[in-house]
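Researcher: Structure prediction, please.
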Amino acid sequence: MGSIMPPIESAEREARSPLAAATDQREQPSGRLIVGNCVDIMRQWRDGAIQLTVTSPPYDQLRDYQGYDFPFEAIADELYRVTADGGVVVWVVGDRIKSGRSLTSFRQALYFQEIGFSAHDVMIYQKKNTPFMRSNAYTNAYEMMFVMSKGKPATFNPLKEPTQRHGYEMLPHNKLPDGVNKKTLKELKREKTRTNIWSYAVGLGGTTSDRIAFQHPAVFPERLALDHILSWSNEDDLVLDPMCGSGTTGKMALLNGRRFIGIDISADYVAIARQRLADCGLDFAVDDGS
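Model: Predicted structure follows.
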């Protein structure tokens, strides 16, 4: 991923706003796309600047990411530093499956925990229409979504779904060691908080209707990004995707009143994200390093 710059002195870093452009601006746009090494870029920011990160890294070299390296530990370290107290990192990741699972996803989650994050939740992203059949095992149809928080999450806006039954019913209550169910009259609500297994269709029309997005080798569903953005952030919060690829997180963040920064080392991928955001008429700037 290129050379890593030495850390910027803390006083200088404290003065730098992640959304500030290279030139002084009186009015900053709501979003910013940056071509560059995400570790280098984040090292220029003050501590605790980001409320939410939603990203999916190029794990296990399952895609040819234009020959770039992936310094996971350096990225994780900077994510911890720039995440605000109560902020959340949603890390969407899977494993290579060849002669058994690599378990890279779990190793990464444990590293996040070692550097100070709390494993607030381990969620499942289920792919409804995965085509990848396996000859000697069940079809793999999911990735992990690790919800890592810096302390207790400051924001949780639970997504709801209708209940199958609602109203008052006699329900089991206070079951004792004798195994006898004691029942009491309780109310079943019309809605309940969703489970931590989220299912999405994938492919054109499921992942997104933006054909240009599929010029990137690995696109996650817009609805997945949106559901996490709504869950763990509020309007005007700053959302980051340090490996923004085709710009899915940025599109959904900006469409829903959040501010956004997307970084990618590939100028080609930032160009895809730029077109998607522009097609939605969103307010953003681009720093291509030129």
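Model: The chain has two domains: 29-159+195-287, 161-193.
Researcher: Thanks, that helps.
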